[in-house]
Every structure is written in C-alpha cells, then in structure tokens.
Amino acid sequence: MDNTGKKKFYITTPIYYPSDNLHIGHAYCSVMADTMARYKRIQGYDVMFLTGTDEHGQKIEEKAKAAGITPKQYVDHVVAGIKELWKLMDISYDKFIRTTDDYHEKAVQKIFKQLYDQGDIYKGAYEGWYCTPCESFWTETQLVDGKCPDCGREVKRTSEEAYFFRLSKYQDRLIQLFEEHPEFLEPASRRNEMLNNFIKPGLEDLCVSRTSFTWGVPVTFDPKHIVYVWVDALSNYITALGYGSEDDSLYQKYWPADIHLVGKEIVRFHTIIWPAMLMALNLPLPKKVLGHGWLILEGGKMSKSKGNVVDPVVLCERYGVDAIRYFLLRDIPFGSDGTFSNEALITRINSDLANDLGNLVSRTVAMIHKYFGGTIPAERTAGEVDDDLIALATATKAKVEAYADEMQFSSALAELWALISRTNKYIDETAPWVLAKDEANRARLAAVMYNLCEAIRIISILVSPFLPHTAPKIQQQLGAPADVLTWEQSGEWGLLPEGFSVQKGEIIFPRIDIAKELAELEAQQKAAREAKEQARQPEGIAQISIDDFAKVELRVAEVKDCEPVKRAKKLLKLTLDDGSGTPRTVASGIAQWYRPEDLIGHKVVLVANLKPAVLCGVESQGMILAADCAKEDVKVLFVDNMPAGAKIR
Ligand code: MSP
C-alpha cells in the first residue's frame, strides 16, 4: 500500500520470443494474466501488468540472417505484429518491455557486473550439449535419448570459455524456499517436480555467457561474451520497473511481483534460476509463480495443423474477442492442459454465450419492451420464487472471488454460469407470458422483470474481467447507471433505481450453424496459411554455384517398407530400393503428415550421398525430399513415373 491507500498488484506474463506465428496457446497466457489484472483493477488495486518480448539469441540472429535483414529489423517487424495482436485481444498491459530496449540492456549489464564483482559469477570453460532452439545447455545425464529434454530436438556438443553463475551456492536456500513457502510455486505437482527432480539431486553452476554469436547483451568487461538469454530475459521483471536505472520508483512501488504467470515448460527457469539470481542480488523474491498447462490441438500439439484454425487473429475476427477469451478461460482448468478444437469453441459459444447469457439478456429486454414499453413500473410485489434467486445472486460474488483469487477462472466462470442458469430458470418458473395475460398481475410482472434486471446487473459486473467487451454491452441494454455497477455492488440486491428504462440492442452472441461454420473455417484457414506463406520473404538465401549443386547426388528410390520409430513420434523409418540392389534405410521426420501405408510403393527423391546419421536409434543413410507447401503442411515429392535408381540432375 502507498499513501493513496491502494493495494499494489504486480502481475507478469513471460516475455514472448518474437515470432510471426503467435498462436492461440500464447494468447492463453496473456488472456489469463489480463483477466487477473482486470479483476484486481476492478477490485480497486493499483495494478502493474507487464508483458513484452524476449528478443536476443542465436535463433533470432539466424532467422534474420536467412531473411537477409539485421536482427533488429527482424524483431522490430515481428514485435509490431505481437503488439497488434494484444491490441486486438484487448490485453490491457500497463507496460511492454523489449529486451532490446536500451534501459533494459544497461540494467542487465549492471546486474551481470555486480554479480561478477561480488563473486557470484566467475570465469571458466563450458563443455556440454547445446540446444539451439531452446537456447539451453544440457549435461549428458539430462539428455533424453541423446536429445534435448525440453523439445526433443538434436543437441550439439559445444565447448567454450564462459562465465558461470554460482547456482550451486543457492541450493540450500532454494530448498528452504520451496519447503517454507509452498505457495511460491503452484500447482503443487510442479513444486514437487522442481524440488525432487531438479533442486534436491544437486544444482550445478550455470553457464551464463556465450561467445558463439553476437546478438545479445555484451558483458561490459569482456565484450566478446554475450549474456545468456535467460539471465537477460528473467531480469526483465525488474528492469521494466526501472531497477538498475536512474529512476527506480516503479521498482520501489511494485516489486516483488505478486504473480509470475508462466507455461509449465519454463517453470524451471522461474523457480530455480530466477530466485537464485534475486538471492544473489539480495532482492525480495516474487510471491508466486503459477505454472499453467498447454493448449493442445485435438490429436496433436498446437503447432501442428490438424484442420483447426489456431490463428488468434482469424478467430477473434470471426467470433469476437470475448468469445475466444471465454473459451480459453472456461475450457482449461488451471494447471492442466486443454484441448482446442473449432468444434469445442463453437459449442461453447452456442451453449454458454448465445443460449445462456445472450438469450437471458435479449429475452429480458424484449419482455420489458413488450409488457411495459421499456420502463419497469414502480409498483412491485414479491413472490415465493424470488428469495432463492436473490440468495444465489448475492452469494455469487464471494464464490467467484474465491476461485478468481487463485486464478482458477474456469471454476469462477462455472459459478457465474450457475447464476445465469438459475436466472433463466426463474423466467420459466415465473412464466411472465402467463402473468401478462391478466392486468391484475401487473405489479407481480413488474417485480419479475425488476428481479431479472437485478440478476443481470450482478452478472454483468462479475463477468466484466472475463468478457470486457460484453459487460458494457449488457449494461447499456440494461440502462443501468454507472453508480450501481461497482464490483462491491455485485454482492448487493435492489440497487437499480425505480423507473429505469432498458434499451434494445444488438444480439450479444449470435448462434452459429456449426456444420456450415466448420466447412467455412477450413477453407479460410487454408487461404490464411497460403497468404502467410506468400508473405514470407524469400530473399537472403545464399546462392550456390553449379559445382556446389553437382556435389549433391539425387536419385529416384522406391519405398519398399515403412514403419514408425518407437522412440520418436515425428520419425518414419523407410526402406528404399535405390537401384543399387542393397536396401537403404532412411529416417524422415514426416510422421505427422504421412502414415506408412501412404508411402509404401511410391517413388521418392533420395539425397543419396548424405553422410549417414543416427536419429533416435535408426541409422539414416540419406534423406528424402519434401516440400513445405503451406505453413505446417509438408508434402513428399513423389516421382512415381520414373524408374528406381534413376539419377536426377
Ligand atoms: N521467451 C521465453 C520466456 C522468457 S520469460 C523471462 C518463452 N517464450 S515463448 O514465446 O516460447 O513462450 C511464452 C509463453 O507462451 C510461455 O509461458 C509458454 O508456455 C506459452 N505458450 C506457448 N505455447 C503454448 C501453448 N500451446 N499453450 C499454452 N501456453 C503456451 O518461453
């Protein structure tokens, strides 16, 4: 609290890797954090909601190079797109940090130098397995089947002079943190995993500098070293508030964070490396790290297209932001993975939003117009079914809060929808169309309409952090004055003034014809994929000479046999006839697009003189060619009309 008397609340999302392909899974994380920020603001907290982008590292450097532009040009372009997405999705962040911001880079350099000066960072040599996509070093024992334990991709043996952070020194304090503050990391399953699988078995010092690339924050006192991206990235939570700069008033005001919201795969960085860094800097620790689950596609991971539209822009434009927000918040219990499908989304929209909520509002407004010309008369009489509705309506606030405080939005919404259902049931119980038949029931009919409006008023307030576009629309149709719409007033009954008038408005959530919609979506998705593909810049790909090309031996080969590889979901093992008389084995990462029976009997293009490599236990003697036809749609080149063994030139 400060002298304004307002309680502070600081919530963060992870800072996103700049990608022109942020999908609905990324949006999940931001929508969750945004809902919490809105919920706290409406409760009167002074909120700081931070998001941003994590822009350094080898991966970005490589992508920019391939596109023939500088890393800064690359990130500037992509970050603009990310900001647009958050604008579209109504993500009400208070601050957006980019790790390429000058003030951040300077503060990271200061942090690194301080840790070095005080002996928490020292110079040594690193040898280990490096996963470029994850920017992570792994020890031999951490690898799974010789691959990156996080993403399952190839790792490279790497050795370099490097700086190390004395993570091992903080092991005991981390154990103490986990044991004395079980609330530090939730859900509990993730806490146990961190403590028992990572911390207690022993923490090794962490390599915190790289010399293999230049796109990052240079170490001031040894500039060929670049600060490890995770040290750079994690620092954002304090540098964004001005820590390490001339004006650290926001840091003084908001730190420590109340919640770092992160996906489950980056919990390790946030609950081991980050608190250890803060301990070394002698700074307070964040109060809580919440590790959420992933949004996955039916039958596969989010990044693989299975005929579902997962581009949040397409979804928001089609159904409106609130429908998407609702689905994300309602369908995924906190901490668990959730499945996204167009069908599940449309079903939710139709049942919960169009039928339950939308109908309640439009029926009520229509009845008040029909029976009373839009204004409820003052004379009213109570009836026996009212008490039950009033009791539930006034109790729902506390129930929603109990869950929302814990970020269990799915359960909070379930409580709210119980009130919506109860209110719809109230219409059936009171049968206003029967009351309307007899003028003698006028006062009772007025009471029923008033009660409906009161329930809707309460619902509109409670729904506002979740559906920020919809709540004002409902309140406008209700004609409710602003002074009965505070959060506190969602727990009180009878606040609408006498003689207020409702307004007819647009249908809040139109019903969707599911079969027609699914067909259209598929067509739209295909078009969007093709457009995106075309927009990709082909420039920047290095030219090769004819001599370089002549080094590649391409041959027609017939697929004689094909089977999945047990240890690698992505791989198929193919047995090929390349005309030499000796069968040749090739492992190919096409399992998500082809079943073995789709390939057997077909002729394919083989790169015959590729050095053999062992992929997940299969010795691959070459490679077959395939085309990226659209994003995430790969097609093998079939050359069925040619004889096996024919040389391609
Ligand atoms: N740059 C790091 C975070 C550094 S924080 C100091 C990073 N970026 S990310 O762009 O890959 O991921 C950002 C967040 O999006 C993570 O919390 C991640 O879990 C979340 N998601 C990415 N795909 C997701 C789903 N399919 N479902 C839910 N969340 C997903 O990690």
How would you explain this protein's 3D organization?
This protein has about 650 residues and is of the alpha/beta class. Strands 3-2-1-11-12-7 form a 6-stranded parallel sheet, with helices on both faces. Strands 15, 16, 17, 18, 21 and 24 form a 6-stranded antiparallel sheet that branches. Strand 4 (about 120-130) and strand 5 form a beta hairpin. Helix 2 packs across helix 3, helix 6 (about 190-200) crosses helix 10 (about 265-280) and helix 14 (about 385-405) packs parallel to helix 17 (about 440-460). It starts with 7 loop residues before the first strand and ends with a strand. The model is unreliable at about 305-310 and about 535-540 (pLDDT under 50). 5'-O-[(L-methionyl)-sulphamoyl]adenosine binds near residues 17, 54 and 234. 5'-O-[(L-methionyl)-sulphamoyl]adenosine (MSP) binds near residues 15, 17, 234, 262 and 263.
